[in-house]
Amino acid sequence: MVSEMMREIKAGPRPTLWSRVLNQWLPGVLLFTTLMVIVLRVAPLFRGQSTKRVELQTLNLVRLDGTPVQSSMLKGKSAIVNFWAPWCPPCRLEIPWLQRVQDREAGNIVVLGVVADPRENENALRFMQHRSVTYLLVRDSPALDAAFGGVSVLPTSFYIAASGTVIHRTQGIVPEQLMLFYAHQAMQHK
After folding, report:
1. How many domains does the chain divide into?
2. 32: burial class by Cβ within 10 Å (0-12, 13-18, 19+)?
3. Does the bond joining 155 to the residue before it have cis omega, within 30 degrees of 0?
4. Which H/E stretch holds residue 71?
5. Is 116 a residue whose pLDDT tops 90?
6. Residue 179 banded pLDDT, cuts 50, 70, 90
7. DSSP 68
8. What is the residue range of 11's domain?
């Protein structure tokens, strides 16, 4: 009896049923979840190309400061149209990534930040000026809503080829490398 107790003390406490289940199943569940997230993020890459077209230069876009966007700035270029709001944490996280895409691909792609909440235009302008954002910031409008079918999740981004074809639509935060990949796909689309 004493020797049995000594063996238990040396071996440590017995694992509970819960800890055994966690040790056996948790790694598999985490691996499965990670793979599903990757598959769901990459699956749109293998779907057929969109037939939706958006002619940005015809939408009479207005900057946050009230000045119109010159249609010549948009003509013949691919675009990322990002619907966001300054109170949205995932939107705020994407801002530097969008800026880097704009800086890296200047001349090939135009990034448009559309403030989805018109009551936030002034706050958004101050917020972006404070962060030295240089991509185009525009007001939402009925024309934009009609062109993109409305947006119910922030952030939502549309990757548009120079031809006007919507190549990708993303909802929620998109990692910078995937954002750059989608931008390159939009630029390469004929």
Report:
1. 2
2. exposed
3. yes
4. none
5. yes
6. very high
7. B
8. 2-43
